[in-house]
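Re: that chain you flagged

S.,

Sorry for the slow reply, it's been a week of failed gels. I finally had a moment to sit down with the sequence you sent. For the record, here it is as I used it:
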Amino acid sequence: MPNQLGRRYQCETCGTMVLCTKAGVGEILCCQSEMPVQQPRKLPSSD
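Prediction finished late last night. Pasting the structure tokens below so you have them in one place:
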């Protein structure tokens, strides 16, 4: 799966977070395992 521009990846072992600034092919690795894409956070409503 290609790295997605503007997406955050977080290591499940140590908690390191990475922001992808250039899209491309490959894996983002930390602690000898692939880092999964972090889901977007919901913003509080402005109502």
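What I noticed first: The radius of gyration is 13 Å.

Talk soon,
D.
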